[in-house]
From TrEMBL:
Keyword Cytoplasm found: no
InterPro entries attached to this UniProt entry: Histidinol_P_phosphatase_HisJ, PHP_dom, Pol/histidinol_Pase-like
Keyword Amino-acid biosynthesis appears in the UniProt entry: yes
Molecular functions (GO terms): histidinol-phosphatase activity
The entry's keywords: Amino-acid biosynthesis, Histidine biosynthesis, Hydrolase
Top enzyme category: hydrolase
Name the record gives this protein: Histidinol-phosphatase
GO BP of this protein: L-histidine biosynthetic process
Pathway: Amino-acid biosynthesis; L-histidine biosynthesis; L-histidine from 5-phospho-alpha-D-ribose 1-diphosphate: step 8/9
């Protein structure tokens, strides 16, 4: 599809690759209509840095984020005639101060939009590695339903405080949950977990959020894109708006698994997508407008990229 609103580059994210401009160039080559840039907001505690950030400090992360916004603005001007660039950020919610920090950051840098994502549960990384995921399961005494409940409770707090325009990988809590005929999925088996997830869906729909259908889930070995089909049905049945994102971590990931994504859209009966645009607004941020793309699975983008 001719857009993505969830992207990273190795220039500003240590677990990604390539420069931010290379990501833009690849999006142009793919004939995208809109490219949303969304580097992670900086973390403010040394204990929250990841192994690949060894030798860095929280101050370094804040400096890098300011450099990201400056580079994104340069690229928006340089490629204005070829692609629309939206400048945003992906959230972190680690401690009770994280959300207030994100609010200040958004105001300071006048961002167009934010991707509301949850990557930690009780300060423990959720999606960094399978062993760290297992540590969270152990933290809950093996009670995966309790772990899932906590995830959706924290996600609800994030939604209420930040009201992100784009909901990032809604059911990321499933990333390393085992699959199999005899494995219990709390979202399927626990009425309480499902109730919390649906509450979050309804709240986000209520303030006008757009849910991304995130193709990176296939790189992690999941059956479906995020959200998995049961949660996606809950969103669609309630009239929720959806977009698509590749969650790219470098230029080689731009439009990653979009061929498979086209099949997922058709299987789920989705032919209307939403996307963000500045719509000719002023030079400042905060200009994001939700726009509609009908007949999405018939768009010329697919054929232009050799996707049937």
């Amino acid at each position: 599809m001719p857009f993505t609103f969830h992207t990273h580059s190795g220039q500003f994210c240590k677990h990604a690759s390539g420069s931010l401009e290379d990501v833009v160039k690849q999006a142009v080559a793919r004939k995208m209509l809109v490219l949303g840039l969304s580097e992670h907001v900086p973390r403010s505690r040394a204990q929250d840095l990841y192994p690949e950030e060894d030798g860095m400090t929280p101050t370094d992360l804040h400096t890098a984020f300011a450099a990201y916004v400056a580079e994104a603005r340069r690229l928006r001007a340089k490629y204005a005639g070829q692609i629309e660039i939206m400048i945003g950020a992906e959230t972190e919610y680690i401690t009770c101060t994280s959300l207030a920090e994100t609010k200040r950051l958004r105001e300071q840098f006048d961002l167009d939009y934010i991707v509301g994502s949850l990557h930690h549960i009780d300060e423990m990384p959720l999606d960094f590695s399978q062993p760290l995921y297992a540590d969270i399961v152990e933290h809950f005494g093996g009670d995966r339903a309790g772990m899932f409940k906590r995830y959706f409770e924290l996600q609800y707090e994030l939604l209420r405080e930040l009201k992100p325009e784009v909901i990032g990988h809604f059911d990321l809590v499933r990333i390393f949950h085992p699959y199999g005929d005899h494995v219990v999925d709390p979202l399927c088996e626990s009425d309480e977990v499902r109730r919390l997830a649906v509450r979050n869906i309804e709240y986000a729909i209520g303030y006008g959020a757009i849910f991304e259908i995130n193709s990176r889930a296939w790189k992690k070995g999941l059956r479906d894109a995020y959200p998995q089909r049961d949660m996606l049905r809950e969103i669609l049945e309630r009239g929720g708006r959806v977009t698509i994102s590749d969650d790219s971590h470098g230029p080689d990931d731009v439009c990653m698994h979009y061929g498979r994504l086209l099949g997922y859209l058709r299987e789920m009966g989705i032919d209307r997508l939403h996307y963000l645009s500045r719509g000719g607004g002023g030079s400042g941020g905060g200009q994001a407008q939700a726009c509609v793309l009908d007949y999405a699975t018939e768009h010329e983008f697919w054929q232009a990229n050799g996707i049937a």
